[in-house]
Amino acid sequence: MTDLFSPAVGARSTAADWQPPAGIAPRGTLLILPGRGEHPLVYERFGRRLAADGYAVHALGTAPEDGTADVLARAAEAAGPGPVAPVVLVGSDTGALQALHAAAAADPRLPVAGIVIAGAAPTGDVARPLTGGVAQPPAARLDEPPAGAVAGPLAGTAGTGTWDAELAARTACPTHRKRLSEDQGFVRGQLMAPVPAPLLAEARPEAPALILHGGADPVTPVEHARERAAGLPRATLGVLREGLHDVLNDASHRITAAAVVLWLERLRADPGLRPVLTVETGDL
């Protein structure tokens, strides 16, 4: 597998896969649905980390405009026959909305046991292109120093200032900023594209959901994530302090990945998500 995935712009990219180390029995199956402008290998770091913890990870080459039936078909194909349970959909941005709709469809081809919703794209009254200014990332982040960013309007798709502003909205991780800036397969400006109309409808699957959202997300207000969590029957909400939109690839990516693993282990132990570890003193 190459370090830089560079399909032709506009082409549908193929899936990327990461498997547990040799001799480690898989503990579950994750299916990642990318967001606007992204392709499967944008999640290489996340995929490798979760695979190292024993999970089979498949990042799909889905696009925001793909319908639920198509998403389910591609997910079932990637998972293969008899995927190791639990099968969990992981979606970012518009991929998060697709994960909600796919899980709600309850298709027998894909036994979805849970969903991870990361930085869901805006819906309802906040479903609009981001055209306001983007603030400079804070000087201190959770586990990595931010790269310098130029604040600017996110209107249109051309110009250095606009790209700097999109990076500032997406992530404060210097490694991920460098990757996106050099990635010929990543489509710049798509973060401002309208959310496809079918994804604007609310979907309330019964499957347990882990919702991860940046506390400083300039694309979707964190209040929107709180409202979604309140509307789902079995949702756990995690807000990343000072986190931006691409929470799986933000400066706090290690903490985010660890939170996903903890949630997955609870899901494996008990579909009712009873706590395995209870912190009785201080914070974890």
How is this fold's topology laid out?
Blueprint: E1 16-18, E2 29-33, H1 44-52, E3 56-59, H2 68-79, E4 87-93, H3 94-105, E5 112-120, H4 160-170, H5 174-182, E6 209-214, H6 222-231, E7 235-240, H7 253-269
Parallel strand pairs: 2-3, 2-4, 4-5, 5-6, 6-7
Antiparallel strand pairs: 1-3
Helix pairs in contact: 2-3
Per the principal axes of the C-alpha atoms, what is the gross shape?
globular
Structural class: alpha/beta
The SSE string, one letter per element, is: EEHEHEHEHHEHEH
Helical content stands at: 25-40%
Gyration radius from CA atoms, angstroms: 18 Å
Largest sheet: 7 strands, mixed
- The order of strands across the largest sheet is 1-3-2-4-5-6-7
Write down the overall mean pLDDT.
Answer: 85
Annotation field: number of helices: 7
Would you give an account of this structure?
- Helix content is 28%, strand content 14%.
- With 284 residues, it is of the alpha/beta class.
- Strands 1-3-2-4-5-6-7 form a 7-stranded mixed sheet, sandwiched between helices.
- β2, α1 and β3 form a beta-alpha-beta unit.
- α2 crosses α3.
Question: What is this structure, in a nutshell?
Answer:
The protein is of the alpha/beta class and 284 residues long. Helix content is 28%, strand content 14%. It is built from 7 helices and 7 strands; from the N terminus they run E-E-H-E-H-E-H-E-H-H-E-H-E-H.
List keywords for this structure.
284 residues; 7 helices; 7 strands; globular; disordered N terminus
